[in-house]
Amino acid sequence: MIGVVVVGVGIAGSVRIRDLLKPLQSSPSENLKIVGFVSRRDLGEHNGVKQICLEEALRSSEVDAAFICTDNQNHEESVRRFLEAGKHVLVEYPMVLSAHAAHELWQMAEEKGKVLHVEHIELLTEEYRALKKEVDGRTLEKGVLHFTGGPLHKQRSGFTAFSGIARVTWLVDLFGELTVTSATQEENPGEDYSKLTAHFVTANNKPVTWIEERAPGMKREKKVNFTFTNGVLDSLPPARRGSVGPFMQDQNLFAQKLLGQVPKEELAAEKKRILYCIDLAEKIKQYCEH
Ligand SMILES: NC(=O)C1=CN([C@@H]2O[C@H](COP(=O)(O)OP(=O)(O)OC[C@H]3O[C@@H](n4cnc5c(N)ncnc54)[C@H](OP(=O)(O)O)[C@@H]3O)[C@@H](O)[C@H]2O)C=CC1
Ligand SMILES: C=CC1=C(C)/C(=C/c2[nH]c(/C=C3N=C(/C=C4\NC(=O)C(C)=C4C=C)C(C)=C\3CCC(=O)O)c(CCC(=O)O)c2C)NC1=O
């Protein structure tokens, strides 16, 4: 069995603990065993799982892997410490809040011979699968992806291009290579309002726009408007509810990696996409700062 600790017990951490306690039958996740969780708060236990301190988690020979489910600001330090301690790491997206740290930590994982897995559940939802199917094979003329949601804690979540990396990942997975041509951020701290607008071009020089807008009371929603040579897609296609939730699918993928069941080419493509998207986020940040 592969011993796992969950670090950070918020929405994501609680789902992780739940899924580790109840793996899908005959799935790779059955090889994972939760040995405890780490929290900066004193929680004692959660769903019958005991709290252990960070130092113990790093030191314990029972712990083979850590799930980093803390706020974005904490990811870099936690990933680094668990890799240094010789543990495999699963980290919730965004992996870290700078391109430099992302490349450095990936290199570190490779030197240590450890699996570094970044959760990207936005690619595993039925909503996205339906969209991808609709877009596949069509030629884009121009596109807009507009996300809205409630405000985030700026310090803990990091710059919008990183906290919203799931939208960048959608665009890259749908349309391939993108180049940032400009980006701006409007903010009204008094009203907790923020709006990021980033402009890209595709490899064929077609414009793509990403808008990430957050304010109190704004519904978590994604709107698309994609113009193709053969028509317009102006809403997300309907999707059925999947039988396996995205976090559980992600956990299975991580377990498969630990078991050496994922082909090298697939691992390399995934790493390339993750670092490529983080590099785009860094570019967007630079545009907004200048
Ligand atoms: N929620 C989701 O659906 C998804 C989340 N993610 C990613 O997962 C990570 C964590 O996100 P999420 O779980 O949503 O964030 P939360 O705000 O729910 O939790 C973040 C951290 O805050 C601490 N915390 C949680 N509740 C409280 C509380 N009541 N009082 C004080 N501290 C608290 C926990 O750390 P501690 O236990 O150490 O105190 C926790 O790890 C982020 O990187 C996010 O981007 C990615 C995809 C989907
Ligand atoms: C209800 C409040 C609620 C909160 C606070 C919430 C937080 C939240 N959801 C996220 C993504 C995500 N969240 C979900 C799904 C969920 N996540 C959930 O907490 C729940 C309850 C579901 C599903 C019913 C998915 C699939 C993603 C990936 C990005 C996407 O496709 O939207 C992220 C990562 C950053 C981002 O992409 O914006 C955060 C912080 N999501 C919420 O729905």
UniProtKB/TrEMBL annotation:
Top enzyme category: oxidoreductase
Family per record: Belongs to the Gfo/Idh/MocA family. Biliverdin reductase subfamily.
Catalysed transformations (reactions): (4Z,15Z)-bilirubin IXalpha + NADP(+) = biliverdin IXalpha + NADPH + H(+); (4Z,15Z)-bilirubin IXalpha + NAD(+) = biliverdin IXalpha + NADH + H(+)
Protein name: Biliverdin reductase A
EC number: 1.3.1.24
Subunit text: Monomer.
Organism, as annotated: Staurois parvus
KW Protein transport (keyword) present: no
Record domain Biliverdin reductase catalytic: where: 128-239
Pathway: Porphyrin-containing compound metabolism; protoheme degradation
Pfam families (alphabetical): Biliv-reduc_cat, GFO_IDH_MocA
Primary localization class, coarse: cytoplasm
Keyword Cytoplasm recorded: yes
Cofactor(s) the protein needs: Zn(2+)
Ranges of residues in domain Gfo/Idh/MocA-like oxidoreductase N-terminal: 2-120
Cell compartments where the protein resides: Cytoplasm, Cytosol
Swiss-Prot/TrEMBL keywords: Cytoplasm, Metal-binding, NAD, NADP, Oxidoreductase, Zinc
Superkingdom of the organism of origin: Eukaryota
Function recorded in the entry: Reduces the gamma-methene bridge of the open tetrapyrrole, biliverdin IXalpha, to bilirubin with the concomitant oxidation of a NADH or NADPH cofactor. Does not reduce bilirubin IXbeta. Uses the reactants NADH or NADPH depending on the pH; NADH is used at the acidic pH range (6-6.9) and NADPH at the alkaline range (8.5-8.7). NADPH, however, is the probable reactant in biological systems.
Lineage, highest ranks first: Eukaryota, Metazoa, Chordata, Craniata, Vertebrata
